[in-house]
Amino acid sequence: MLEILRKLGPGLLYAGAAIGVSHIVQSTRAGAEYGYVLILGILFAHLFKYPFFELGPRYAALKGESLIQAYLRLGRWAVWIVLILTVSTMFTIQAAVTVVTAGIALKITGLSWSPWVMSTFLLVLCALILYIGKFNVLNELMKVIMIVLAITTVVAAVTSFFIEREVQLEAQRFFSLQDPQDASFLIAFLGWMPAPLDIAIWHSLWVVANRRIRNSEIPFRQEMTDFRVGFYGTAFLALCFLLLGANVIYGSGIELSANGVVYAGQLIDIYTTSIGSWSYFVIAIAAFTTMFSTTLTCLDGSPRVITEILRGHLSEKDNPQVVLQKRNMHFTIMILLTIGVAVLLSVFVSSMKQMVTIATSISFLTAPILAYLSIRVARTELTERPWSRKLEYLAWLGLFFLIVLGAYYLRILIG
Fold first, then answer.
1. What is the C-alpha separation between 191 and 125, in angstroms, rounded?
2. What is the pLDDT, as a whole number, of residue 410?
3. In 10 A of CB 345, how many CB atoms?
4. What is the CATH number of the domain that holds 288?
5. 23 to 27, 100, 243: CA distances (angstroms)
6. pLDDT tens sequence across 224-265
7. Considering its fold, how many domains does the chain have in total?
8. Burial class, 269, CB count within 10 angstroms (exposed 0-12 / middle 13-18 / buried 19+)
9. Which residue range forms the structural domain that includes residue 212?
10. pTM (two decimals)
């Protein structure tokens, strides 16, 4: 068991980035508001997005470079698109995950800080961890966090089926695509289920960084096993969070709060209701460390993409000065991201729900562009161990799925 954990790396970073807002907030809310019906949303999202997430580690494992280099071979236009999408979404993505983390931190500590102050403090702390510890801390910390979260969430989900509670028929809400509010929630829910497609690019960068640290090539089979552990693990935990929301809150008349601190208390109450009051601190720490890991990985991911685009791929022959220059640029972009998010949260921090909806919706609407680029890369660059015909068909279906739902959402917005 310990040997398996030792070998896991970027797949757990993927899981750490994915299991955050999409699971702790959106999946729980999906179960609490609509019962079990959106289990289908979780299954379809994982099915249709699978090829795009798999491409990141597949390409990096085979080529020894990130997807950024693959986009560059398609043409500079592709890299510019990725750069524009990254810059346009990274502030809302980081703000959404940070404000949720801040809410849980304030609930646990009991501090009287404002959510904005706590969010800013956490961002600065994450930036320092990434600068001082670099990739090693990120890689090793994730193993502990994911184990604690997985065990507590599975136990809580199983025991939630045995809770005795009164269900109010008039409080049960039924999902309908004809209802603009339900359709809007579905888009926000699917936008980050299991994660934004940007994470495929981050994953490829993490694979390359992991190889540089180990100073050795990792077998392709091991890289793909690492990815699948993270991918299927996030799918399973998304179902667990939805079951928790459905079994503990659905039909109870309780409404999940849009305020981060209040929501954090409700989330912890869901766990303690399922497992018992003794588990309060275990759950609180697990919830915080999970969201903190998401804040950490997101703060690393987007700046890493921008640095790769602006400074180029590091080869094994690059001297220490070049490596240092690239590291300093990465840290500079992290600081700019931190400042931008702090400013953004100063306006939107009062409503966690609004911030999350904005971030997830933007991610969903831009997803077809990244999906199309992924298909182009798979068809032109992956000559060794290419996608199977079934996987390519699934990718085209996934692109169609993203376009149709995105168009439907825009029609709702336009009225």
1. 28
2. 84
3. 26
4. 1.20.1740.10
5. 5, 12, 11
6. 888 998 899 999 999 999 999 899 888 888 888 877 778 888
7. 1
8. middle
9. 2-414
10. 0.88
